[in-house]
Design brief:
With 229 residues, the chain is α/β, with parallel strands linked by helices. The chain folds into two domains: 2-109, Bordetella uptake gene, domain 1 (D-Maltodextrin-Binding Protein, domain 2, 3-Layer(aba) Sandwich), CATH 3.40.190; 115-228, Periplasmic binding protein-like II (D-Maltodextrin-Binding Protein, domain 2, 3-Layer(aba) Sandwich). The chain contains eight helices and ten strands. Strands 3-2-4-1-5 form a five-stranded mixed β-sheet, sandwiched between helices. A five-stranded mixed β-sheet has the order 8-7-9-6-10. The chain is elongated and about 60 Å long. The two termini are 29 Å apart.
């Protein structure tokens, strides 16, 4: 995730901020993006002496909240907790996007991490090989944070590489997709490893693979693409 604002918001005097700052999270409350934003908001509020208020504006893979920030005054008091899907993917995916990604000024990179495929605990596959075989034998569903989200694109690439066909189920954020995977309403979910790891550790989800070139430290036994074959 990255923090950005509308131009020319960086032209601030030394007294900034003199009032509360709104940090728009373009995904639902309770998800990994929201959690990281709230940690950032707390730290910034403590450091700068003014509250940073998290405002969740979910929808359309983060483009609803992003458009809201783009329409807001460029005074540095409305910031976007953006990311790959909202600032890099959406401009190439949506013809009628209601904002110009280039109009945002990046303030800094806040965090980054790998993605993970995790399935409902009773999915009859114990590893990635069995998952692919199962997908070839019967229809399976995979959820993501929405059409055009990084999880959606990663799921499409996974299908192409594995030569399988999954039914994509878009949600208004990662949190409801994870909830439905745990409850068995969908077969699996493609989301950040940070968001899925607690549920995998608790036995509520089954991890199949984590993206990247090296093991994910919180779940070192989950294979990366090369080791998974």
């Amino acid at each position: 995730a990255s923090v950005g604002c509308g131009a020319p918001a960086l032209a601030q005097n030394a007294a900034y901020p003199t009032k509360a700052v709104t940090l728009v999270v373009p995904f639902p409350a309770g998800g990994p993006t929201d959690a990281s934003a709230r940690l950032f908001a707390k730290a910034m509020g403590d450091r700068l002496g003014q509250p940073f208020i998290v405002d969740n504006r979910a929808g359309a893979a983060g483009t609803v909240g992003s458009a809201f920030v783009a329409r807001s005054p460029s005074d540095g008091y409305t910031l976007l907790w953006g990311g790959t899907s909202t600032l890099a993917v959406a401009p190439g995916l949506y013809k009628s996007l209601k904002y110009d990604a280039k109009s945002f000024i990046p303030i800094g990179m806040a965090l980054r991490g790998p993605l993970m495929i995790a399935g409902r605990p009773n999915l009859p596959a114990k590893d990635l090989h069995e998952l692919i075989a199962l997908a070839k034998a019967q229809p399976l569903t995979i959820g993501s944070a929405g059409n055009g989200s990084i999880g959606h694109l990663a799921a499409e690439q996974f299908q192409e590489v594995a030569k399988i066909k999954l039914t994509h189920v878009p949600y208004r954020g990662g949190s409801p997709a994870i909830t439905d995977a745990i409850g068995g309403q969908i077969d699996m979910v493609f989301d950040t490893a940070a968001a899925l790891a607690p549920f995998v550790k608790a036995g509520k989800l089954k991890a199949f693979v984590v993206t990247g070139s090296k093991a994910y430290a919180p779940l070192p036994d989950v294979p990366v693409p090369g080791s998974a074959g």
